[in-house]
Each structure stands twice: as C-alpha cells, then as structure tokens.
Write a structure and sequence with these properties.
By secondary structure, the protein is of the alpha/beta class. It is built from 14 helices and 14 strands. The chain binds pyridoxal-5'-phosphate (PLP). Pyridoxal-5'-phosphate binds next to α4. The site of pyridoxal-5'-phosphate has 13 residues, from α4.
C-alpha cells in the first residue's frame, strides 16, 4: 500500500482492531500485483499457470476504436444506439422480449431484485447464492427464506408460507461449488406454486448450452425462466451485466432500479466490445473449455482429490482456513496460481481452492498443473 509518511488519525484506531481480528482468524486478504497473460500470470517476474480466471472461453482480444465515451446516466444524456443493438442481441441470445444492460452483474442483481421484490413478498433464496443476490434480497424489503442448497423438498416446504408475490432465486452454476442448480425441478416447483423464477447465470452464460445460451438451455427450461440475470465479464470476456425478461419487467427496471438510474452508463466502447464478441463464433472455444475441464477433473480425481463439480469451476474443499492458505502458497511456489477462498465468501471451515478452467490452457499446461497438484497431494494429503 502507498505510504507517503502522512499522519494518521486516532479516530480511526478501531480499524486496526478490526483488521487484527481478521488476521487472527486467517481471513486477511490483500491485493496481489500481477500481470495477466492469458494462460499465465506473472508475479514478481515468476510465470505461473493461471487457474483462477473467469475469462472461461479465452476469446482473443478483439480490436475496437475508443471514439465514444458516454459518461452519464442513459436516461439523462440520451441513449446511444449501440446499447439497443447489444440489448437486442442479448434478448435473442436469451429468447426473451427485452434486455437491459447494467454497469456490472452485481448492479444488475441489485437493480432487478429490488425493483421486482418488495415488502409483503416472499423470496426463496438458495443458501449458496452469491453475495450480490443476498444483499439485493435484503434491500428489497421482502421476507427472505433461505432454502438448503439445491434441496427441492426444503424449497417446496418453504414455498407454503404466505407472500403476495413469491420469487425463487438461484444461480445457474454456483460460483464457489461449480455445481449446476436443479433447474428442471426448481422450475417445476415454481410453476406449480405460481412463483416467479429468477436466475443468476453469471457462470453458465456463454459457456454451457447450445450456442452458449446458458444453464436454462442446458436443462431445456428456457421458457420457464421469468427473469434472467447475467454478467458480460465472465464467459463473454467483456464487461458489464444485464437482465433479460418480458417487456414490462424491463420497462419497470428502467423506471425504478436505482443501480440503473442513478449511475453512469458504461462507456459506449465497452458496449461495442461486448457486441463484437457476441458476433464471434465461440463454438471452438466452448469445445476447448469442455475438453480442458474434463482432462483436469479426471486428472485431479486420479490423484485422489474429491471432486464433485461437473463444470469449469472446480473447488478442492479443504476446510481449515490456514491449511487452505498454505495449500495455495505451496501451489504458488511450484507454479500454479489458484485462489484459496475463505469466509465470508464460503461458510467458515469450508475453505477451498477454487480452480477455474479456461480455454486459454493447452493440454501441456494442464499436465504441468496436474504434476504440481500431485506434489501438493503428497504433502497435504487432502
Ligand atoms: C453468481 C454471480 N453473480 C453475479 C456476479 C457479479 O458479476 P460482475 O462481476 O459482473 O459484477 C458474480 C461475480 O463473481 C457471480 O459469481
């Protein structure tokens, strides 16, 4: 951190106390200076294999001209026509009437959930849902019932409680466990109780389903998803977030969602960038991602790691936070960069190494990584 020998204020001493507590619990995080180069990451001149990127498809950078830099709210400064082009394309991609781009996926969750849900409504939320969903549900004022992860019986039971509108909110591919949600069963239950199904498919969008249409396509339930929320910053390798739904929902979001109205729009060149990337045929990359996922998953299983994920997010659950950190440090020393994930991102004592596979990796990269995981297994016996 920068330190210009500037004086600090005693009024903020409590901050040190909090930081100390975080450190004592092995939960301290700090930013690490790295240089990212596709399959590799460089830290202090040491080149490491990059196993923690969400740029799953590894589509090479596409060139754009940065000649437009809109920097105000779209309602105030006028709506650049490039937005309409991207939103039309996203609507087609999701087979929905309309779409709306937000600055990030986080802000899309915040904007959409607080627009649709309100006091008197009932939200059923999977216990492993992303922090942005949890935060948005709390802000909405609706009653929240958290159901056990992917547990249809628990969900069905909790749906019996009263709510003016009932919303079921789940992820498509869970970001820290890498498992699919039981979308077929969830949409069946939802239909039976006339609930609104809201899906955050940040990790399934562009990566799974025919033409990368996401988890609903993978499970053949596209028509049953009422509100689809996603990120442009993962599978598409661009930046931003969006929602696709029916016209009136998008209309209400434009009129009501604060994270759309009271913030600057993404600059037009980023919208153009997403649009360009949507026009690229991504099939080859998707196949490579599936191949890499299969080689790495099978290789890790053969080494004795317990892997339950069937997707490109592969967690190695370790439990203890300190051991997870030591495991990560060992990998780093040997040449693999993958993040240990701890509380509050995952529950306490469920610390894990989150591996994310990308199409950037070659077969040789994966073999090298497996070699290092073999050494780690001998040392840590996980
Ligand atoms: C499930 C899920 N939803 C939403 C987000 C937020 O997306 P963005 O990075 O575009 O803000 C993430 C990001 O990690 C995520 O994992």
């Amino acid at each position: 951190m920068t330190d210009f020998n500037l004086k600090v204020s005693n009024k903020l001493n409590f901050v040190d106390v909090e930081l100390e507590q975080i450190k004592e619990n092995n939960l301290y995080r700090k930013l690490r200076d790295v240089k990212v180069n596709n399959a590799y990451i460089t830290i202090k001149n040491k080149r490491l294999l990059n196993l923690c990127s969400n740029d799953y498809l590894g589509i090479p950078i596409t060139k754009i001209k940065i000649n437009q830099m809109q920097s105000s709210s779209r309602l105030v400064s006028g709506n650049d026509e490039i937005y309409k082009k991207l939103e039309d394309k996203l609507s087609k991609h999701k087979s929905k009437q309309a779409s709306l781009v937000y600055p990030t996926g986080y802000m899309a969750n915040l904007g959409v959930i607080t627009t649709i849900a309100k006091k008197g409504d009932l939200i059923l939320s999977d216990e492993l849902n992303h922090a942005s969903i949890i935060e948005s549900c709390r802000l909405s004022g609706a009653k929240i019932l958290v159901y056990k992860h992917n547990d249809i019986e628990d969900l069905t039971k909790k749906l019996n409680q009263h709510g003016k509108n009932k919303l079921i909110i789940t992820e498509g591919i869970f970001s820290m466990d890498g498992d699919f949600s039981k979308l077929k069963e969830i949409t069946d239950v939802s239909e039976r109780s006339n609930a609104i199904t809201v899906l955050d498919d940040a990790h399934g969008d562009f990566t799974v389903g025919t033409d990368g249409r996401g988890t609903p396509n993978h499970f053949n339930v596209t028509k049953k998803i009422d509100i689809y929320i996603s990120s442009l910053s993962k599978g598409l390798g661009s930046f931003g977030g969006y929602v696709s739904s029916q016209n009136n929902v998008i209309d209400l979001c434009i009129n009501k969602s604060k994270s759309f109205i009271y913030t600057s729009a993404l600059p037009s060149f980023l919208i153009q960038y997403s649009l360009n990337r949507m026009q690229i045929n991504r099939e080859k990359q998707r196949k490579k991602l599936a191949r890499n996922t299969s080689i790495l998953t099978n290789g890790l299983k053969q080494l004795g790691y317990q892997i339950n994920s069937k997707t490109h997010i592969i967690p190695i659950v370790i439990g203890n936070e300190k051991i997870a950190m030591d495991f990560g440090k060992f990998l780093l020393k040997k040449g693999v960069f993958a993040q240990p994930i701890r509380y509050p991102t995952v529950p306490k004592n469920k610390a894990r190494l989150r591996i994310s596979v990308t199409a950037w990796l070659s077969k040789k990269n994966i073999d090298d990584a497996l070699n290092i995981f073999e050494q780690a297994q001998k040392k840590f016996k996980i």
